[in-house]
TrEMBL record:
Location of the HPr domain: 1-88
Record keywords: Cytoplasm, Phosphotransferase system
Lineage: superkingdom: Bacteria
Alphabetical list of Pfam families matching this protein: PTS-HPr
Matches recorded under PROSITE patterns: PTS_HPR_DOM (PS51350), PTS_HPR_HIS (PS00369)
Protein name (Swiss-Prot/TrEMBL): Phosphocarrier protein HPr
Cytoplasm is among the record's keywords: yes
Length: 88
């Protein structure tokens, strides 16, 4: 399983607009993609294809999250989005 730790770049954290953009990108993949807070126990991730689930993480700007999937390309794309300020 591919995994990547990233820091949330959006000024509002993983809230409505950033979560929707991330979920839309995740929906393009057939693979399961999860996001979890870095300090959470492994396996407690949420579905990256659900903006509502992403928002439940409560990840603010500067928080570290982990993106995981069997598809390394999916991990890299979602991680790159999380690192950006998607509110700009």
């Amino acid at each position: 399983m591919a995994s990547r730790n990233v820091v949330v770049g959006s000024a509002v954290g993983l809230h409505a607009r950033p979560a929707a953009l991330i979920a839309a990108a995740a929906a393009e993949y057939d693979d399961d993609i999860t996001i979890r807070r870095a300090e959470s126990d492994p396996g407690k991730g949420v579905d990256a294809g659900s903006s509502m689930m992403i928002m439940t993480l409560g990840a603010k700007q500067g928080a570290e999250v982990v993106v995981e999937s069997d598809n390394e390309a999916a991990v890299n794309e979602i991680a790159a989005l999380i690192e950006q300020d998607l509110d700009a």
